[in-house]
Sequence to fold (229 residues):
Amino acid sequence: IAGITQAPTSQILAAGRRMTLRCTQDMRHNAMYWYRQDLGLGLRLIHYSNTAGTTGKGEVPDGYSVSRANTDDFPLTLASAVPSQTSVYFCASSDGGLGRTEAFFGQGTRLTVV
Amino acid sequence: AQSVTQLDSQVPVFEEAPVELRCNYSSSVSVYLFWYVQYPNQGLQLLLKYLSGSTLVKGINGFEAEFNKSQTSFHLRKPSVHISDTAEYFCAVSGMGTGFQKLVFGTGTRLLVSP
Fold:
């Protein structure tokens, strides 16, 4: 079982360009999440989806968009990248909304915006 | 809303010594508490969690944590660390209740185990 697969693993992106980070899970979890990890700030929630067809904003959603067309995929799009979006991005999933249930994380995408 | 404070950004320790990583939280409602570990260049994985019941929780790799409601703490301990325990450790909290419950992370504590 692969769990959560993120692609690409790393990317250098020119400012102003559009970029989609991919996330696929094979655990049939209904909930999925995108976090960014920055030194000294821990992990911050960008967007989440409780179930296919619904999405919600986390604590740092500006400059990012998501979609959830099906259970398995939860892509994160940067419409016009800026240097402050340089970060490590983690996709996660859980069987139910985060609360009692464990979150499973992908390996991360290291994004550098120059 | 919930928040988590991990006071120590880095904890150096010698192999086979005991270690405690501190975590304090704040919340206006009852909470669930978690510790996640992140090994270099990897994602996070669950170490242990407190949902209810016994305040002493045992996790993987010999770690344990104790929930102290009066002190709003959930410190992580291991009686004897190994080199392989070198990693970043994150405390996290989520509120109890209906609807979506956000998992809020602390800023992390880097455990450095040396021989």
Remarks:
- Chain B is about 0% helix and 50% strand.
